[in-house]
Amino acid sequence: MYPLLILLTLASWLIQWRLRSKFKQYSQVGLSSGLSGAEIAAKMLADHGIYDVRIISTEGQLTDHYNPTDKTVNLSEGVYAERSAAAAAIAAHECGHAVQHSTAYSMLQFRSALVPTLSAVSKWVPMLILAGFFLINRTPLPLLVGIGLFSLTTLFSFITLPVEFDASRRALAWMDQRGVVTTQEHAMAKDALWWAAMTYVVAALASLASLLYYVSIFTRRR
User: Fold this and answer.
1) List 82, 94, 164, 185, catalytic entry
2) Residue 136's pLDDT is what?
3) Statement: residue 2 has pLDDT above 70
4) Which of 48, 61, 96, 173 could make an SS bond with 167 (beta carbons 3.0 to 4.6 A apart)?
């Protein structure tokens, strides 16, 4: 199990590096339509009849996200003002989540329903797992509870996958339909979003590997 965890950690680092490299490369490619990330986001929301979602500029790099609680599309400063294939991909992807929300996409609803529970228990998981390791020969209870709570994290990671892939699919389909990107720019946007999706895939696999490792310790004790 250790070699697998090490391999997944290495894969995660490489994919993150590749993702940043791709976005840096595509950020230097000016968008032929001349639209900024914020303008693309506004256009995509309007085309889907969504007028109650705000578009906000947020600090950081690759900090872009959609917040279903306050209905905001949060775009990093570069993406918000940038007019590039990378900015178009990110802005449209985050709006894809807004479209999911407005259409009651089931997997997004499922993921959102798990957030309060995960927020409440996440701080306890490391302590329970660690306590479980130390107390494994006395009582399996802390480790068992830790495994149960950690399994929710793993479930969340895998539920995130269809949510992210679907948001990218919606984004690419809309950009193609509306002609806001050329064929070449569309290919760049697709490539960038694919690498972004791979970060979630590796994270889910790493979470599953960790869960199986904890379970193996528990079963060996028995």
Assistant:
1) 94
2) 83
3) no
4) 96
